[in-house]
Each structure stands twice: as structure tokens, then as C-alpha cells.
Amino acid sequence: MMPRPSLLCPLSLLLALLSVSVVCSFVTTGPSSKQQFVIRNAKAKADVEPLQHDNNKHDPAYVRHPSDGSVIVDPNGKPLTVDRMLATKPLRSDLMTRPGPGRRELTYMAGESVISTLNQVFGYDGWNLQVIQTEPVLREQLDGKRWCVVYTAHVRITLTETGTFKEDYGTGDAIDNQLPAALQLALKASITDAIKRAARHFGDKLGNCLYQNKFDLNEAPKNLGQALEQFDKRMGI
């Protein structure tokens, strides 16, 4: 009698074949999946690179209305860029004068005019102020009654969109019969002075042109349209 074939052998063979198939499938799928992942990464990188390249270009920022965010246009209907506005001279209404050394008349921008211009150019939430340090440098009593106080301040103005910042130092002094009042006035004056000095680094519109000897108060523009016209004329536009 011939021996009955065992069912164990075909079953073992089937299991072995299935194992080989699974291993082969894993081996073939593994590198393929890995390669596909790399390709997706390379494609994503290729998609991003042009955007990064475009971001390196200088895209002009525009001056916007604080009410609705729409872009402000000049008298010719051209969108007004921040750079162009910063290059204009400050308006006559934003300027004040005071006696200076050598009987000279000094022209300056008041603190409220500088802050108003910062809001106008960059927007109310487009910049922030950091008072880095304040320090009293003098506190003495004059004639046994009045107090003389001098403070220095170090501030930084940062544009929220780009992170660009300008910083500078300012000095403030005050004389008052009451020491607390003199301290308060001198401290506030030093911070205001530092704000004005830091802001001027952004351009002529914020007072940088006032440090030029050739600046003529009588030629200060009366309105934004006239300021833009003067700038375009200087640039030969």
C-alpha cells in the first residue's frame, strides 16, 4: 500500500511561499515608499523655492487709511508707498521753533506730531515702542527751593510687520519746586526726546531733514500733495 501523502508538507510549503511573498512585498514596497516620500519632499521644496526667491525681492508697502485699510493714493491716483512718504518733508503744521545756541532758531517736531506721523505712515498697530532704559543723571536743589532734575532714556521703535527697528537716546530736564514733579517731568521729557531721535532714522518725514543745515522752514510743504510734488521734483520724476 502506498503511503498517504501528508497534508503537512503542502501546508508548510504554502506558508513558506506566503512568507517569501510578504518579505518580497516588504522589500519592494519599502524603498519604493521611501523614494516616493523623497520625491514628495523634493516637489514641495521646488514649490517653495520660487516663493522664497520672490520674498527676497522688495515688495513695496503702502500707506493705508486707518478706517478701512484701503491704500492711499497721491493726487495723480498713484498708490502711495511707505518709502515714498517717508522721503517727503514734514508738513509746516508739524514743525515748531525755539531759540537755540548762538542766537539761532531751531526747528523741531513736537512729540505728538512724531507719534501722529508714525501712526499715519505705519498704522496704529504697525509699530511698537520699547523703553529700554531710563536713568537719572542729575538731581540737585537750586537756591534751597527749586529742584533741577535731568534724565536720559534709551528707546527702540520696531515695525511689527518686518521687525525693523530704530533706537536712540534722549535727554530731558525739569525744574520745579516739588521734587516728585521735577522727576516726573524730566523722565517724560527724556522719553519723548528719545522717541523723536529714534523716529528720525526712518526718514525725512519724521524729522531727519531737520538736522540738515540747508533746511528752510519757509519751504516746508503745507499739505501731503505739496510734499509729494516737492519730492518728485527732487527725484526728477
Description of the molecule:
Belongs to the RAD52 family. This protein is globular. The chain is of the alpha+beta class and 237 residues long. The N and C termini lie far apart (113 Å). A hairpin with a 5-residue loop joins strand 4 (146-159) and strand 5. It has a domain at 82-235: DNA repair protein Rad52/59/22 (Enolase-like, domain 1, 2-Layer Sandwich), CATH 3.30.390.80. It has helices at residues 8-55, 82-86, 111-122, 179-199, 224-235, and strands spanning 95-99, 105-109, 127-142, 146-159, 165-176.
Would you spell out the secondary-structure blueprint of this structure?
Elements: H1 8-55, H2 82-86, E1 95-99, E2 105-109, H3 111-122, E3 127-142, E4 146-159, E5 165-176, H4 179-199, H5 224-235
